[in-house]
């Protein structure tokens, strides 16, 4: 697992490309404008260290991410991104509906309603 | 889906029994002591209306619940319960490890550390 | 309390009409576009099962909802809706001011400032 | 409203005595042990500046506080204190039940379950 | 520390002027439109009672505020304001970068990404 | 910054030793019992990748961590740990008092009261 920073970054961006084709340039560009090490540190941890691990299929991981972001309710833009990423990695619309309804149980109706807004945007983006 | 309150309650408790054998008496008893309608309203919504729905396997639903409760961080007792329920419905320890690591990405290291504590308790309870 | 799904939905929408005349078509339409059962499950729980209960006047319930949404801070659109619903069910502007100031005590000044923005929008909408 | 610090503190503690007889010594002692100005700053803001204001009855304010603390889920000890304070200022057990059920709608079932635990402790303390 | 309300307000606005020149008219105007006592109560507590205290330099206090608002994630507008206020009180861009990266550790990657957006806006505003 | 996993872990534990002498064995032991890679992934990100960076003194970083954990309110055990770590890295009790009071402004009085409890435990532990 020992990787050079440039490899760690590259591996993270390769995973991000699977979540949404074209996203790496946009996301890495945004982070590079902020600080030269931000992409490697943040995306390297998220994608190279954790999300790229074996043990759970990528689609399952996106289902978990959608549920967490919807329940927390503090990152609506990223919730919508991961709704799209879920669809891109093989999660079905029907499964997203089920996740969103389950969010209502554990985080309340307003969190579920906000997730419906994000899901509909993601559905319409395809 | 139209069910009498008594059926709605019974269906919820049947689902709860699948999450943890023996839990229905304890949970329903706790709620009945509070208010006669609490179990039907709260468990009926959670389990009869939502979690019992087709569309996602129960094990997947428990994975989502564990992720949400760990990310929110406000219900440690119920997080530990759903760690056990996840194991009871077929989620493996290895999968729980992966969920807990992914919590760190989306909700921070302290949320993940608290989830590790809950997971270890659930692992030891078996 | 045993009701057919169609009745449960109808009762929820009748309550929603009291919160804001005209809201049922908009809210139910939004949910129906997402999934055919969403309105019955989410609004049925929220409004038929809980908010329509005796035991607290609707105006008091809206005061509680405004306080909770303002303190949580994760659903600004719904906070503004319930500010209007509070006014529609008989809560006075002076009472909303008091709620918003009290939010500062329990959830901090930024939560209160955000609630002021929502309250001013609701005041101006009338 | 211009008051000397000693008066501001005294007014805050007088309000606190209404919430729970005997609480002022305990709470002020706890804060005085931490820093000499903590009681005046924190309790002065909470109770002298805000909660003692006209515009809402004290019982209504305690209902709002219970709802906010239950929805936020981050201060279980203070939630239980304000459950007792609600009862002490005239809120009925039946009203607390309704608040707790409404918490489930806006903050989720686990938040409501935790509030049930706090409510039952408060009920048993009397 | 005993001050008349008008002085308490004036002291709060003087502190606010240090955070962002020109902000007092805008912020106080917004609050005065809501309720005549809001500025004194909310800004008086925040700035006169707490932030104006000795014991921490104002720049350090703004670093703490930026970290807290970024970690909580519920007040994006105020996060951006305090990013600017941090710069105005002597915090460097490099220090803000470090704070934002540290937010990722304790509150997760999405919170950090949102803070990057706010920081970039604040950097561009100068 | 390219480091082998064993070095990344060792560097993280060296930083942790500065936060609290003796903590590395306890924390790493707890994580190793959970999963062999947990310490490297979680502590490596937190301490090797971020907290060990130049750009902010360690004492300042601990002040930020204390403020964030107190504002979030979801990790009381870790809040107390970082209160002690703040003292261990040169933050004074007077500075901790100021942080805790400032938490009340941005996250509310209950968050500040909980932080007072944690601070007093940390003060007494020395």
From TrEMBL, chains A, B, C, D, E, F:
It comes from the Bacteria. GO terms for molecular function: peroxiredoxin activity. SUPFAM superfamilies: AhpD-like (SSF69118). InterPro entries: 4CMD/NDH-1_regulator, AhpD-like, CMD-like. Residues 39-120 form the Carboxymuconolactone decarboxylase-like domain. This is Carboxymuconolactone decarboxylase.
């Amino acid at each position: 697992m020992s990787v050079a920073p440039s490899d760690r970054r590259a591996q993270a961006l390769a995973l991000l490309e699977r979540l949404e084709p074209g996203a790496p340039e946009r996301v890495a560009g945004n982070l590079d404008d902020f600080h030269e090490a931000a992409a490697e540190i943040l995306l390297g941890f998220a994608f190279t260290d954790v999300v790229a691990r074996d043990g759970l299929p990528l689609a399952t991981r996106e289902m978990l991410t959608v549920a967490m972001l919807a329940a927390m309710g503090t990152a609506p833009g990223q919730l919508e991104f991961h709704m799209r990423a879920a669809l891109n990695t093989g999660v079905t619309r029907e499964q997203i509906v089920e996740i969103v309804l389950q969010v209502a149980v554990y985080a309340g109706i307003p969190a579920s309603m906000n997730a419906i807004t994000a899901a509909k945007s993601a559905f319409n983006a395809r």
